[in-house]
Request: fold
Amino acid sequence: MEQIGIYTVPVIVVFIVLFGAARKVNVFEGFCEGVKEGAGSLISVAPSLMGLIVGVTMLSASGFFDILTDALSPACEAVGFPCEVLPLGLMRPVTGSGSFAVLSDIFDKYGADSVIGRTASVMAGSTETTFYAIAVYYGSVGLKKTRHTIPAALLADMTGMVSAVLCVRFFG
Reply:
């Protein structure tokens, strides 16, 4: 199985070059154009990403997520939502790396095979880094107004979180 991983990327690159050559496309020129477009996209997205990173860092360092978790815990307990995964639920729509750090902490504290660990795993896989994705995709095309995107995406994230809890409770 390890051999497949070693040869996959070189085989794909050779296939693309041969396919382009067979169609009489200047592959190197196309590659350079793609790099130029990618660099332009990176420059247009960078301000949004930097703002998002600064905001997440400030919220995390200030203890905002901890305060919000403490405030929401009684309501979560009342409906049967495990409070232990609430920090992951709050962090996941904002940042992928921050949410995986929270997921790692949950695994260290409760174990990956515990109900809490399994719930956190399913939750991490069932939700999206909503604000990061919006910053990247909307920023790359220059859109400023998100309209219904954020509420719909956050509703989808909440649905994923609740579904994770229910799936682990009833099937896991």
